[in-house]
Amino acid sequence: MLILGIETSCDETAAALVRDGTVLSNVISSQIDLHARFGGVVPEIASRAHVETIGYVIREAFDAARRVPSQIDGIAVSARYGLIGSLIVGVSAAKSLAYALGVPLVGTHHIEGHIFAPMLSHPGVPLPHVCLTVSGGHTMLVYVQEPCRYQVLGNTLDDAAGEAFDKIAKFLDMGFPGGPAIDRLSLQGSRTAFDLPRPMTRGRSLDFSFSGLKTCVVNMFRGKPPESIPLADVAASFQEAVVDVLVSKAVQAAERKGVAAITVTGGVSANRRLQEAFRQKCGRLGLAVFFPLADLHTDNAAMVAAAGAARLARGERSGLDLNAVASAPLEGLP
Ligand code: KG4
Ligand code: ZN
Asked: What is the pTM (predicted TM-score) of this model?
């Protein structure tokens, strides 16, 4: 099946063509430059930029794959979970094309897309497995029994891990988005320079909380002259605290569910120290760990096409009354 995927849930306008698990094109138009001066994504600017870009991005996805619209067998779109104004743009584009081309349409959950990214990257990912999906909008541990069958094991109670990266970077004037900036800067810093808390790692809960860690860093340096703050050490110590929490909870989840593999996905999964720490810990425990290939960590439409292909193959279809929903649970999908 040749599937067109469309993704506009936050600040990336993306379209991709995927045929039977092979990515033929994966076009991502990032809005980072539009939001950078605000230090975060501005929803109204995001949705307007999606409207301006979506047509070009879809056309580019066809051109890059050397395919034409009449060749596709279906369309998948991120319809649930994200900024409502942004989601609506992708959903409207997907419905219009599905109607015009007379092909089946399926609306997917944004996080389900992220769950598919490691499976799309590595066809050998075993099932069941535990997936840690971690980005600017969510931090979630999911038991993936089989494609499209999930059990959420843990969720963030406040800030997502990527959001904490972004807020710390904004506070310390390191740039936007904060994750890549902290990732780079921490290479020159000491991971043990500051003794920071590892929130919620003592009990059995698989939920996360990063807001206290963020406040702890802010309180340490609020009001201090910027030149007196050892930025690289703060970045490395903060990153290490987040990484410790993510790795220890994902491993706990894998052990509790008795699975042999963990997948890590979402924007933060590109973090080099996170990947290193997972490889070390999982290597010691005999667990396999998988990350998405480049361009599939962050928001993209190839992962949406992969998730949609699985749902279309099960006979699922969305009608032309498909609507965007900003906040929707992952479990209990049709
Ligand atoms: O998955 P994504 O593109 O969008 C959401 O669904 O949120 O993730 C974006 C998030 C941002 O918070 C960004 O700072 C973070 O992923 N991020 C990173 C890295 N690259 C992106 N965080 C830590 N290290 C990185 N290398
Ligand atoms: Zn995402």
From this structure: 0.95
